[in-house]
Each structure stands twice: as C-alpha cells, then as structure tokens.
Amino acid sequence: MRYLLTLCFLLFFTFSHSQEYTKSFSVELDSIDNILVSLPPCKDTTIIESAIHRCDELDSLNLSPDDEYTVLQKKSQLLAMLGKYVEGFLTQEKGILRLDTTDIRYLEYFAVKNKYLGNKKLSDSYYDKAIDMCGKMTGKKYKLKKLNV
Q1: DSSP state of 144
Q2: Greater pLDDT, 138 or 144
C-alpha cells in the first residue's frame, strides 16, 4: 500500500507542470528519496524507472548547479538500484561536472576516481585541495583519512 501511495504521489507531480519549481522541487526530491529508501529489492522496476524519468524532467528545468547535481545524484542512485552501475557512475560524474571546481564534492569525487584509476599523485592533489577547502570553510584545519584502496 505504501508503494502504491508513493507511486501515486510521484505520478501526481509528474503531470503537474508548475513553473514555480522551488517549492515543488523539494517535494519531488523527497518523493524520489522515499522511493530510494522504501523499495525492497524486487523484480518490478516500473516505480524506479518512473522516478528516473522524473529526474530527467527535473534536469531539463533551469536549475541551479547545486540542484542539477542533486537531481543527477538521485538518478545515479536509482540507476544503481537497477544494476546499471556504469551508467550511474557516468550520471554522477555529469552532476559533479556541473559543480564549481573548488566545491568539496567535486574535489572528493576526482580524488577517489583518480585513486581507482591508479593516478596516486593526482588523487593526492585533489585530496589536498579538499582538505584546504575544508579548512577555509570551517576556520580549522582537518586531517582527512585517505583511502588506501
């Protein structure tokens, strides 16, 4: 029953074409979050595919870079739920590239990506930049534990 209500809620916002997206945007992201946390692993993927379609519609709006990142991050999670890990990873990177190059999420992503690609020197450079940004934002210097993967 909860899944049916979530689907109805999502479909309601799918067909609602309000130009004021600021309030409904938050509600729609919440409904996508509800899908992410409430669905058990199952073979029926229609609700997840519907949420992915809604993410595509939200992404086509004139959103701020941070909102674009949020939508693409959620789409990436939904794709992973379908087992489409490579597509999800590429979608996540598409969202990351919409952020400022000094954004901590941007720096962290490329630090981890370069670590997995075997480019330790570039990875460490991104980690160092992320640490510096954390220090600038908080007024304190934090030590971050680097991944040894």
Answers
A1: P
A2: 138
Q: What is the largest CA-CA distance in the chain?
A: 52
| pTM over 0.70, yes/no | no
Q: Which long-range contacts (C-beta less than 8 Å, at least 24 apart) are formed by 133-141?
A: 133/102, 133/103, 133/104, 133/107, 134/104, 137/104
Q: How many residues make up the chain in this entry?
A: 149
Q: How many helices (H) and strands (E) would you count in the chain?
A: 7, 0
Residues 72, 59 contacting (CB under 8 angstroms): yes
Q: What is the DSSP letter of 146?
A: P
Classify burial at 73, counting beta carbons within 10 Å of its beta carbon; exposed 0-12, middle 13-18, buried 19 or more. middle
